[in-house]
Structures are given as C-alpha cells and as structure tokens.
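Continuing the batch. This is chain 6 of the set; chains 1 through 5 are on the previous pages. Same settings as before, nothing changed between runs. Recording input and output for traceability.
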Amino acid sequence: MRAAWYEKQGPANEVLIVGEMPDPQPGAGEVRIRIAASGINPGDIKKRQDSFGLGMPYPRVIPHSDGAGVVDLVGDHISAEWIGRRVWCYGAQSYRPFGTAAEFTVVPLDHVAQLPEKVSPEEGACLGIPGITAHRAVHVGGDVARRTLLVQGAGGAVGMCAVAVARHAGARVIGTIRSPSEEPTARTAGAHEVVLNDQGLAERVRSLAPAGVDHIVEVAFGANIDADVEMLKMGGSIGAYATDTAAPKIPFWLMVFKNIRVFFLGSDDFPVEAKVAATRDLNDALRAGWPGFEIGERIPLAEIARAHELVEHPARRGRIVIMV
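Output for chain 6:
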C-alpha cells in the first residue's frame, strides 16, 4: 500500500516519507478500512514534533488517528456485513503505530462508526478526536438537558463540536470566540448566544445567565480559570481538555467555596463506552442537520508535509484533510 510515515521526529519536510508498505491484515475483532480521507489534528503535529518530549513510541509511525473510507476486510469474530460499509474511525494511531495516512488502516471495531448518508469522507475524517473530546467535555459533569453551558473557544474544532453536541442534547449554549470572524462558525454549530472572550467576558455572561452557568467546556484552562470560577454557579463544573500554560495557578479557595468540580480530559484514555456514545450522538447531530466541519483544503497523500505545515500555519479557514 501507499503510505506516509516517519522514523524520527522533527519538521514535517525533513521527517515525513511517502512510499510503499505491505498491506495490513486485520486481527481478531478488527476491521481494515480502505482510507479515502485522513484528518490531521494538532495532536498528530505534536507527536511528530515530539512536543511533549516522549520520543518515538515505535520505530516507524504512520501518522493521524482519524480517517474515513470503506471497510474492505474483517478479522475473526466480525460480521462480514461490515464489508462495503462507509465508515469513519478514530484512535487509529493511539497506542498503535500505524494511523490513517495510508491506503489502508486497521482498527478495532469499537473504533469505527458508520458514516451517515450525505456526509463526505472528508467531513467524516475530521470527526474523531475533536468530536469525541467535545462530547466527553460536554457530558462528563452529568446530564446537560435544560442546563446552561458555556463553551470556551466555540470557533475551534473541539469548541464547535461541543456546541453542536450540547445543543443537540437540549442545553442552552453560550459560546465564546476570540474574534468576530469566528461568530458564524459558532452560530452555525448551534450556539444560542455568542460573546467575545475579552476583559468583559464575565460581565457579559452574567447578563445572559444571572444565576451563573452550570458547566464550562474549557480549551485554555490557565488563561480562563479565574473568569470560569466567577461565571459558574454553586456546584458547577469544568471539563478541561487543553491549557495555554502547562502549570496554571488556580483560585483554590474560591473554587472550594463554590464546590466546583474540574474534570481533566485526555481523549486517548476515555472509557470505551464514552467514545461509543460520542460516535452515536455525533452521527445523530449530523443527521439532524448539523453541517459538521468546513473543509479548507484537500491535499494528496504525496504532499503530506505541506499539509502538516498548513495545519501549523493556517492560510485559510477550515480543516486540512489528506485525500488518499
């Protein structure tokens, strides 16, 4: 099969290689997917750059955890009815060496969801990590129906998914954005109200939710924690999946006095049942009319280094996907 890989970490144009590898074979409980589109997430970039100083987890890595295509082969204990189904997958390169930047990938069946009709492989290839992270960040604090949720960074990939998932689950959703240019994205995802995240954020949110918000989906924990505590009601919660600083300070006593719960969320290690629930709810939201992701550029596998560079330094709105 044609595939892209790296055997050392570093800049995209120095370490990414495109060549031929043997076709993978599914083991028991696994399916093989003929990949049509491969999604690129910030985590894929960080792994290739060794941003966390963990080194090479395997001698050779095919990058990207998310993708979409058609099941073409199944392993033992998997029904042959899966063959020929359009699917999207996640976690292909989580605790595994070979991801979706290849003609084929092999994943356990519980890492696969059917792709709804009228949803393109490119859109499906963007769902995995941001969608599952968003779903967990929304639901980790409990039932959100008829509750008020604040989604920090509602114009980003995880943020817009969180807005869509929360709205679909019956929550009232307030989204924050960094600039007015992000408002259409947050609105399209389903935010009831959209506010700028600047010095006046807490005051604006209090005007919309005088009693405070029930739960916050947080993308920049260090920068936003003071405002988050101010905006939350007694017994509120935060689902934090990212931070702007690795060792943030927290207003401990204010959090204690409000009995605030904080959940720190790493998507690779969510419970299996939470991931499966996320795929179901994301598909339901798509079928209900959520338009999903805007695709910024479709780039062939042979130009994967350029695709990674565009993710690092975006030139236009929308997600970058590799077309295999």
